[in-house]
TrEMBL record:
GO terms for biological process, alphabetical: methionine biosynthetic process; tetrahydrofolate interconversion
One GO MF term attached to the UniProt entry: methylenetetrahydrofolate reductase (NADH) activity
Enzyme Commission numbers on file: 1.5.1.54
InterPro entries per UniProt: FAD-linked_oxidoreductase-like (IPR029041), Mehydrof_redctse-like (IPR003171), MTHF_reductase_bac (IPR004620)
Record pathway: One-carbon metabolism; tetrahydrofolate interconversion; Amino-acid biosynthesis; L-methionine biosynthesis via de novo pathway
Record-given protein name: Methylenetetrahydrofolate reductase
Species this protein is from: Aliikangiella marina
Required co-factors: FAD
Catalytic class of the enzyme: oxidoreductase
Length: 298
């Protein structure tokens, strides 16, 4: 039944892909190979994360410009405000607008390790307002099904999300999660709290379980016992980890699709293989456009 529903979804699912700015020539090659391969799946947009220090920031801009010039994709830069002045943010936003960028993922960001006094006291809410005052950008923001680690309580975090939406954000992209029920309950709470935008689930195919454990502890994401059991004994077996990662994520998107989710955001980690396979299982195909036009024309 689950598979039957998925086949019915062909052509009705929107996907978006997230990349990060690489810091070596080899990683840069991997990134562009991945972008080229995933381009064929016609994502709604592709986003590029924004780092904590200036060199990473410059790289985000460069990759966004290159995607804009050399592909058919819609590039969406992430922008964080915690380590920047308002003037710096306005300057970058104006530059993006002039270059044809119309959509930004607006985030607070985190301070670089060792730094504890922010340049300003801005939160993502202030950034959404600032961007909207620069130009009529489409703005996406972050959402946390398991609550952001700095939030005093879940209700506060939800109100913060509502404020970001009320200030003009038209989409929330979720932190990654593995307990699908948690996301679904969070989505329900968003609806009852009047957060009337899509809460797009962030899907992370887990190929490096050890790294995930570190990252999930910092980000307040729970890693269920069944995942520990699945990855147990695979520390030196990347190929099996890849197969498991695809399987876990495919199961996750199947359940979400059955629950009515139609937009999915993939944390690709600059790799295309797993994301491509998961999209394929959702009925997202390269040939779909041609097939549809054949049917229409034929
Ligand atoms: P906010 O929405 O501002 O919330 C941050 C915290 O502050 C929350 O706990 C909130 O409840 C609390 N808060 C809000 N307002 C107030 C207030 N007035 N007083 C006290 N507390 C308040 N990081 C990067 O550096 N670069 C990226 O490209 C990037 N991309 C991301 C993409 C996605 C989809 C997600 C989910 C996260 C991303 N992050 C990125 C991480 C993000 O920057 C961090 O999680 C950061 O700690 C919070 O950012 P935010 O936009 O959610 O902040």
């Amino acid at each position: 039944l689950l598979n039957q529903n998925l086949f019915d979804l062909a052509g009705k699912v929107n996907v978006s892909f997230e990349f990060f700015p690489p810091n070596s020539e080899q990683m840069e090659n991997t990134l562009w190979q991945s972008i080229k391969r995933l381009e064929g799946l016609s994502p709604k947009f592709v986003s590029v994360t924004y780092g904590a220090n200036n060199s990473t920031r410059e790289r985000t801009h460069r990759i966004i410009s290159k995607i804009q010039k050399e592909t058919s994709l819609v590039p969406v830069p992430h922008l964080t405000c915690i380590g920047s002045t308002r003037a710096e943010i306005v300057e970058l936003a104006e530059q993006y607008w002039q270059e044809g960028v119309r959509h930004i993922v607006a985030l607070r960001g985190d301070l670089p390790e060792g730094e504890n006094s922010p340049q300003n006291q801005m939160y993502a809410l202030d950034l959404v307002k600032l961007l909207k005052s620069v130009a009529d950008f489409e703005v996406s923001v972050a959402a946390y099904p398991e609550v952001h680690p700095d939030a005093p309580n879940p209700q506060f975090d939800l109100i913060n999300l509502k404020r970001k939406v009320d200030a003009g954000a038209s989409r929330a992209i979720s932190q990654f999660f593995f307990d699908t029920e948690t996301y679904l309950r969070f989505r329900d709470r968003c609806v009852t709290s009047g957060v009337d935008v899509e809460i797009v689930p962030g899907i992370l195919p887990v190929t490096n379980f050890k790294q995930l454990l570190k990252f999930s502890a910092i980000t307040n994401v729970s890693v269920p016992g069944w995942m520990h059991r699945l990855y147990d004994g695979l520390d030196n077996d990347p190929m099996t980890r890849n197969l498991i990662a695809a399987n876990v994520a495919i199961e996750q998107v199947k359940v979400l699709a059955k629950e009515g989710v139609r937009d999915f955001h993939f944390y690709t980690l600059n790799r295309s293989d797993l994301t491509y396979a998961i999209c394929h299982s959702l009925g997202v195909r390269e040939s779909l456009v041609e097939e549809t036009s054949l049917v229409v024309n034929g």
